[in-house]
Inverse folding.
């Protein structure tokens, strides 16, 4: 089961407090200085990497993958996927993989 990471301000405050940091904005600045990404960007990065595994399995629709990886809407999932995959949509990504996989087997 995949860990679900939420990114509301309240969730970020809870994560900060669980680490003993009272100031959520300090946590956010610290997190970005360490990772180079905001917390939300990092969460979306992790979610998209999980989504790639589901997409490549071929067992799920784009909407199912979006929901399984914690995105509230399919359109937001597609937007974030394109952002992290050089403009390539999830559908096109899966099609390219399937074509390459098929070509290698022949």
């Amino acid at each position: 089961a995949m860990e679900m990471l939420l990114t509301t301000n309240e969730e970020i405050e809870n994560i900060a407090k669980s680490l003993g940091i009272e100031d959520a904005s300090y946590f956010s600045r610290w997190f970005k200085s360490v990772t180079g990404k905001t917390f939300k960007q990092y969460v979306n990065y992790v979610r998209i990497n999980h989504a790639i595994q589901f997409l490549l399995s071929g067992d799920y629709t784009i909407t199912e993958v979006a929901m399984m990886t914690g995105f509230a809407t399919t359109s937001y999932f597609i937007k974030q996927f394109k952002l992290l995959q050089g403009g390539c949509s999830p559908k096109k990504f899966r099609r390219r993989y399937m074509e390459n996989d098929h070509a290698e087997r022949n």
